[in-house]
Amino acid sequence: MNFKLILFIVIFFLTMNTYASEKVVLHIEGDEWCPYMCDENAIKQKGLFRDITESIFNSQNYEVKFEFMPWARTLKRGEKGEIDAILAAFKEGREKFIFHKIELIQSLQSFVVLKETNWKFKNFNSLKDIHLGLILGYIYGGNIDQIKNNAKKISEIGGENGLEKNLMKLKNKEIDAVLDENHVLQYYIKKLDLSTSMKFTGNIGKRAGLYIGFPKVLPNSQKLADTVDKGLTKMKKSGEYQKILKKYGLTVKN
Fold first, then answer.
1. 106-207, what's its fold?
2. Splitting the chain (254 residues) into consecutive groups of 10 residues, what average pLDDT does each group show?
3. 23-100+211-247 and 106-207 in the same fold
4. Which of 213, 186, 208 is nearest to 71 (CA)?
5. Beta-bridge partner residues of 199
6. Hey, how many other C-beta atoms are within 10 angstroms of the C-beta on 106?
7. Going by C-beta distance under 8 Å and a sequence separation of 6 or more, which residues neighbour residue 249?
8. pTM for the predicted model, two decimal places
C-alpha cells in the first residue's frame, strides 16, 4: 500500500469522525417566563423548560441555542420556519406547529388583583366588571376568545418583560386584574416585592399542558417532536425530570 493511499484513508476517517461529532444546532425562541424560561445571567438558572429541552437534545447530538424574544414575534418567526422551535406553547390555536404528545408540565391560569379589590373570578361572565391586563399573543390555555368576548376592557401588552409591566400597571391601578400562569405569577410577584399588595383570586379553566412547538413548514419537526417524547419518557423513568422540578420548587400535579 503506497503512502498516498494510506494518507487518503487516514484523512477520510478523520473527516468522517469530525462530521459524526458535529452537533446539529437548534435555534429556539421564547419570552422570559420564569421559573420556566429564565435569564441565567440574572439568576444563574435557565429555567425548568430550558433545562429539560437541553437535557433531551444534548444527549442526541444537538446543540440548543435559546434566545429571548417577545412572544408575538416568536410565534410569527416560528410559523414561517425561521426558527426550529418555540418554547413553550399550548396546543390550542397553534395549528401551524407540531407538538410532542407528553406535556412538559400541566399549567394553571390564574387571576391576580390588588388586595383591597373585592372582585373574584367565578365564570367568564364575571369578566364584564373588570379591565384585564394580558400579554399579546398568549391564548391562556385556549380560553382567549371567551376572555375577549366577555371582559369589560382588555389591554394587551407586547415587547419584553410583558408580565412585569402588567403587574406594575396593576399596582398603579391602571388595570383591575392580571391573568397569567400560576407559577410564573408567583415568581414575578415575589421578584417585584408585590406580595403584600396583591392576591390570587381564581383560576380560569382546567390545567392544560405546555409544549415545545415545532414549525410544520420544517421537514424535521416531527422527528424533533418524537425525540422530545422519547426524552421525557426516559427522564421521568430515571428520575431526572423530577429532580429538575424540585430544583425550581415545583411538583407534578394531576
1. D-Maltodextrin-Binding Protein; domain 2 (3.40.190)
2. 53 49 91 95 94 97 97 97 97 95 96 98 97 96 93 95 97 98 95 97 93 99 99 98 93 63
3. yes
4. 213
5. 113
6. 13
7. 35
8. 0.85
The rounded distance, in Å, linking the Cα atoms of 229 and 211 is 11
d(CA 240, CA 108): 23
What stretches of the chain adopt beta strand conformation (E)?
A: 24-30, 62-68, 85-89, 97-99, 105-114, 131-135, 153-157, 177-181, 198-215
Q: What's the one-letter identity of residue 72?
A: A
Report the C-alpha gap between 83 and 32 in whole angstroms.
17
In the numeric block, which cell numbers belong to residue 173? 391601578
- The structural architecture, per CATH, of the domain 23-100+211-247 is 3-Layer(aba) Sandwich (3.40)
In the block, cell 391562556 appears at 140
